[in-house]
Design a protein that fits this description.
The complex is a heterodimer of chains A (113) and B (113). Chain A contains no helices and 11 strands. Chain A is mainly β and 113 residues long. In chain A, the strands form 2 sheets. In chain A, strands 2, 4, 5, 9, 10 and 11 form a 6-stranded mixed beta sheet that branches. Chain A has a 5-stranded antiparallel beta sheet with strand order 1-3-8-7-6, with no helix packed on it. In chain A, a hairpin with a 4-residue loop joins strand 7 and strand 8. The radius of gyration of chain A is 14 Å and the shape is globular. With 113 residues, chain B is mostly beta strands. In chain B, 0% of the residues lie in helices and 58% in strands. Chain B is globular, with a radius of gyration of 13 Å. Classes of the chains: A mainly beta (113), B mainly beta (113). Chains A and B meet through strand 4, strand 5, strand 9 and strand 10 of A and strand 5, strand 9 and strand 10 of B.
């Protein structure tokens, strides 16, 4: 079954600290993996996209990694800011000739002063 | 640059009333358009997608329908709302295929009472 599981479900950190969010997937055949940031009550905004051959990609303080062998990805946030408080969603697409995208349930991150 | 507009931002409707949510895209032509629903604490669920005018594919059976009367307009409708239709609805567009990221609208919070 094609699934995307994210952990932890929620996370509280202090401003300035680093954190890592996890994404495990069983989607096959794999096409690409994306991380989105979703502020409360808003639409998701793309942070990174990685294909099979890419194992790391950065976007400012956000760094995503991908291990296609173990089907795991992580999103590392460096020097967190209050504005990083949001849900982070892992999205995996299948390469089926058509389109099929599976969304994780997200990790809710709270950054406290 | 491409932009996506979705309205209204919030909506409270009684059970049995009709629904019409509209989404428009600017700055691109022949986009793939999507309607997603996000239940509280859950991942995004694809409801409908369209690859062209008048072409609608439904991912899950439900009380909702979608239409694409113009190239850059996507409408989500219901003749009679159910309590279970409450949720956060997101419109998105993509350039085509599963190898491209999506750009999401700002979302509509629908509460059926």
């Amino acid at each position: 079954k094609n699934q995307v599981e994210q952990s932890p479900q929620s996370l509280i950190i202090l401003e300035g600290k680093n954190c890592t969010l996890q994404c495990n997937y069983t989607v096959s055949p794999f096409s690409n993996l994306r991380w989105y940031k979703q502020d409360t009550g808003r639409g998701p905004v793309s942070l990174t996209i990685m294909t099979f051959s890419e194992n790391t990609k950065s976007n400012g303080r956000y760094t995503a990694t991908l291990d296609a062998d173990t089907k795991q990805s992580s999103l590392h946030i460096t020097a967190s800011q209050l504005s990083d408080s949001a849900s982070y969603i892992c999205v995996v697409s299948r390469n089926t000739g058509g389109f099929k995208t599976i969304f994780g349930a997200g990790t809710r991150l709270f950054v406290k002063a | 640059s491409q932009t996506i507009h979705q309205w209204p931002a919030t909506l409270v409707q009684p059970v049995g009333s009709p629904l019409s949510l509209e989404c428009t895209v600017e700055g691109t032509s022949n986009p793939n358009l999507y309607w997603y629903r996000q239940a509280a604490g859950r991942g995004l669920q694809l409801l409908f997608y369209s690859v062209g005018i008048g072409q609608i594919s439904s991912e899950v059976p439900q009380n909702l329908s979608a239409s694409r009367p113009q190239d850059r307009q996507f409408i989500l409708s219901s003749k009679k709302l159910l309590l279970s239709d409450s949720g956060f609805y997101l419109c998105a567009w993509g350039a085509g295929g599963s190898n491209y990221g999506y750009t999401f609208g700002s979302g509509t919070r629908l509460t059926v009472v």
